[in-house]
Amino acid sequence: MNSYLLILPIFLPIALGALSKFIRFRTRRAREIFLMIPVCITSVLVWVLILNRPEGTFTLFKFTQNLAISLRLDDFGSFFAALIATLWPFASLYAFEYISPEKRQDAFLALYTMTYGVTLGVAFASSFLSMYFFYELLTIITVPLVMFTMTEEAKYAARKYMYFSLGGTAFAFIGLIFIIVYGSSDIFQLGGVLNPSDIGNARLLQIVYIFTFCGFGVKAAIFPVHSWLPEAAVAPTPVTALLHAVAVVKSGVFGIARITYFSFGAAFLRGTWAQYVALAIVLFTILYGSSVAVRERHFKRRLAWSTVANLSYILFGILLLSPAGLTSGMMHMLFHAFMKITLFYCAGAVLYQSGREYLSELDGLGRRMPVVFVCYTISALALTGIPPLSGFYSKFALGSAGVSDGGIWGAIGAGVLLISALLTAIYAIYPAIRAFFPQKSATLPSKDIRDPNAYMLIPILLTCMATVLFGVFSQGIYNALYPIASSIVGGGV
Q1: Which pLDDT score, from 0 to 100, does residue 225 have?
Q2: For residue 388, is the peptide bond before it cis, meaning its omega torsion is within 30 degrees of 0?
Q3: CB of 491 closer than 8 Å to CB of 266
Q4: Alpha-carbon distance 484 to 467, whole Å?
Q5: Are 341 and 352 in contact (CB under 8 A)?
Q6: What is the phi/psi pair of residue 490, to 5°?
Q7: Residue of 9, 187, 228, 420 with fewest CB within 10 Å of its CB?
Q8: Span 47-60, mean pLDDT?
Q9: Taking the model in full, what pTM does it have?
Q10: Rounded Cα gap, residues 405 and 390, in angstroms
Q11: How open is the CA angle 160-336-93, to the nearest 5 degrees?
Q12: What is the 3-state secondary structure (H, E, C) of 310-329?
């Protein structure tokens, strides 16, 4: 299969999403069909490309002889692309109903569809410069989605997200420059592009790695550049679901993994102070995010703080720089995407159907919206790490990898995961308790409140079902991911 086909999944949703803004559709259904068709075709194309991977690299355009925006599909990019392509059609279906009362739904759905192509650009990027290009474009295209409601709160959240993201890419740019200067090229390569024996100042490059880590860490919501993420919960739920589960935050995690293994290289970083500083940051982020989530009383923001913690779960596995660590990190990246998108779908359904945003307002809603809250409860239990649900296996794999491969920092990490699991049980399950077991003094919600229609219920049910099935097949998933991780950590040896 020819490499030029890699441009199609990127171009199709961007082009047709933009075109939809200028077409006057007679009905809402016509707009939905027009946008859903390219979304589904794109997902099919991505899976076809993954299963029949093109050889070589496709160059979009060149800046110099050695610097270009180019695309290539490798094992790690395929993993991220598959995650994006699987979840996006569900997110679009959910968005059609959720955004239907808004006057500017045409602009929202156009940008939402275009974001799909840009995110795939991050996954398909063959070089640091290419990923940086799509990464910047992702910020630009998602800022209007965050501020879509145009309330003062939404405008503030969008400005904060933009300032933090632009600052992060400035730090990442430092890494790009040093990789170009000290590396054989900026093309992603197994084992990285640095040759430690030829580097006169390894300490300087380790400092640069920390800058780059923090730069991409903005979108991965590491402490102290995390606060934009809970603020962004003011955005419409289809946006927050993708912000927190797939597109933006996972692009940050993906970016860190790329520069760690494919630019600087695991061999260069393993056992250095740079690895330990990065591990310390993510472990503190796990504790901090979990602790604040317990105190948060706003339903969606509580889930947002949970995302802050769980993204650093993934980074903990990545930064162990071992096959087991990377495998468990990829596993939690997959499982968390489905768990968290289900939880946000449920929170959004509650807001859409009842207008309720705070935990104190959930009393008795489980009796009025049983499907939503059963799915919420299952996903909350999975996020907590209750067997045999998927979250248990990915967290157990992370803890095991920390103890076996991470030395003292890995052991500390395993302890942090245990503390975070206890905090997760408190903040994740509490809304379900309020919904199914209301306080005696609470006034039960109106009988007019009910589960949403199929546009919302189908994505909720399918992503929740996936959370359960991933637990059933967790060992097979681990076994499938381990050879990929082993090759990446070993530099392809």
Answers
A1: 93
A2: yes
A3: yes
A4: 22
A5: no
A6: -80, 0
A7: 187
A8: 92
A9: 0.95
A10: 22
A11: 75
A12: HHHHHHHHHHCCCHHHHHHH
Report the amino acid identity of residue 246.
Answer: V
Which two three-digit tokens encode residue 478? 């681990």
Burial tier of 427 (Cβ tally within 10 Å: 0-12, 13-18, 19+): buried
Closest CA to 428 of 290, 230, 221: 290
Tell me how far apart the alpha carbons of residues 247 and 116 are, in angstroms, rounded to a whole number: 8
What is d(CA 397, CA 200) in angstroms, rounded to the nearest whole number?
37
Dihedral sign from CA coordinates of 173, 18, 149, 152: positive
The amino acid occupying position 268 is F
Question: Is the four-CA dihedral 469, 474, 476, 481 of positive or negative sign?
Answer: positive
Lowest mean pLDDT among 188-192, 282-286, 405-409, 426-430: 405-409
Nearest to 455 by CA among 27, 92, 97: 97
| Tokens of residue 178, six digits | 């040093």
The answer to whether the bond into 144 is cis (omega within 30° of 0) is no
Name the pLDDT band for 64 (thresholds 50, 70, 90).
Answer: confident
Mean pLDDT value across residues 149-175: 92
Q: Where are the alpha helices (DSSP H) in 99-234?
A: 105-124, 128-146, 152-182, 202-217, 228-231
Question: What torsion, rounded to 10 degrees, do the Cα atoms 379, 392, 261, 244 define?
Answer: 20
382 and 390 Cβ atoms separated by less than 8 Å = yes
Tokens of 357: 């945003």
Q: Write phi, then psi, for 61 (nearest 5 degrees).
A: -160, 155
Residue in 316, 307, 301 with CA at minimum distance from that of residue 289: 307
Secondary structure letter of residue 263 according to DSSP: I
What residues are paired with 68 via a beta bridge?
62
* Size of the chain in residues: 493
Residue 304 pLDDT grade (very low, low, confident, very high; cuts 50, 70, 90): very high
Taking the C-alpha atoms of residue 420 and residue 361, their distance in angstroms, rounded to an integer, is 26
Of residues 441 and 385, more confidently modeled? 385
Which class for 203: exposed (0-12), middle (13-18), buried (19 or more C-beta within 10 A)? exposed
Which amino acid is residue 183, in one-letter code? G
Residue in the block written with tokens 């400035």: 170
Instruction: Return the structure tokens found at 405.
Output: 């491969």
Q: For residue 287, what pLDDT band results from cuts at 50, 70 and 90?
A: very high
Q: What is the C-alpha separation between 92 and 116, in angstroms, rounded?
A: 10
Question: Cβ distance 50 to 44 under 8 Å?
Answer: no
